[in-house]
Specification:
The chain is built from 8 helices and 10 strands. The protein has helices at 21-24, 42-55, 80-101, 112-120, 122-135, 148-156, 189-200, 229-242, and strands at 4-11, 30-34, 58-62, 107-108, 140-144, 160-165, 205-206, 212-213, 219-222, 246-247. The strands form 2 sheets. A 7-stranded parallel β-barrel has the order 1-2-3-4-5-6-9, surrounded by 6 helices. The protein has a two-stranded antiparallel ribbon with strand order 7-8. The protein starts with a strand and ends with a strand. 46% of the residues are buried.
């Protein structure tokens, strides 16, 4: 029975007062920092890395489509070379900033529409996994549990972290319900806390039909851009504490 879990959160995306980075950072173990394409900029990247270092939070790059207008949640068709360059440029930009502050990157987690597309497109998931490995073979790639991203990363041989979502509705095949659906987001913090415990312990959860499904995972995601992100993180930490589950980064 698993007794520890990583909690990751997307940060460096919103400036105060819209962003909750200061409140969220002490509540998580790993952060995914926007690299300037779907959100953020060089200043925010530097500030978020420094904040993560201050709180002992592992740092990851959060590359997305070049789409600030839609926050990286709109699919963009790219060639294999364009996709590789998209990831390479963003990860290396954050890697350089982190190095100047004396930090290493732990992981890479694609953002939004890119993450969801890779989860169902093996060929381009393979491109991303290979690109991340070429940047640094010690990087961990965060993938949707049971997806094409996981299969491709295993094929390449890069270390992965299987990700579970506490605030998103799952379909029967283990994929995430589209955000456009009215029931896609779970907003009840009590339900999210209960789901976090089940996922951390490797227990089954319910999909959108109410059926029982298994979502093996190493890390849990909290979306930092949600209005109740801090409340959610507090509730999840408390639920895990009561169940004697340690929150700890993967390294």
């Amino acid at each position: 029975m698993k007794r520890k879990i990583d909690i990751n959160c997307d940060l460096g995306e919103l400036k105060p007062p819209d962003g909750n980075d200061l409140e969220l950072m002490p509540l998580i173990s790993s952060c995914n920092i926007a690299c300037g394409y779907h959100a953020g900029d060089t200043v925010m990247m530097r500030e978020t890395v420094a904040l993560a270092r201050e709180h002992g939070v592992a740092i990851g790059a959060h590359p997305g489509y070049d789409d600030k207008e839609e926050f990286g949640r709109r699919f963009m068709e790219l060639t294999d070379r364009e996709l590789s360059d998209l990831v390479l440029i963003q990860v290396e930009a954050l890697q350089e900033i982190a190095a100047r502050i004396g930090c290493d990157l732990q992981h890479v987690k694609p953002h939004g529409a890119l993450y969801n597309y890779l989860a169902r497109n093996y060929a381009q998931a393979l491109i991303v996994a290979d690109t991340v490995q070429r940047i640094d073979r010690d990087l961990i790639l965060y993938v949707l549990s049971g997806s094409c991203s996981e299969t491709a990363a295993n094929e390449v041989g890069i270390t992965i972290a299987k990700e579970g979502f506490i605030d998103r509705q799952y379909l029967a095949d283990g994929s995430l319900m589209a955000r456009s659906h009215s029931e896609a987001l779970i907003t009840d913090v009590r339900v999210m806390g209960e789901r976090a415990v089940k996922l951390a312990l490797g227990e089954n959860i319910r999909d959108e039909s109410g059926a029982s499904i298994s979502i093996p995972c190493d890390t849990l995601c909290i979306h930092g851009d949600q209005p109740a992100a801090v409340e959610t993180a507090v509730a999840v930490r408390e639920s895990l504490r009561r169940s004697r589950i340690e929150v700890k980064s993967l390294r």
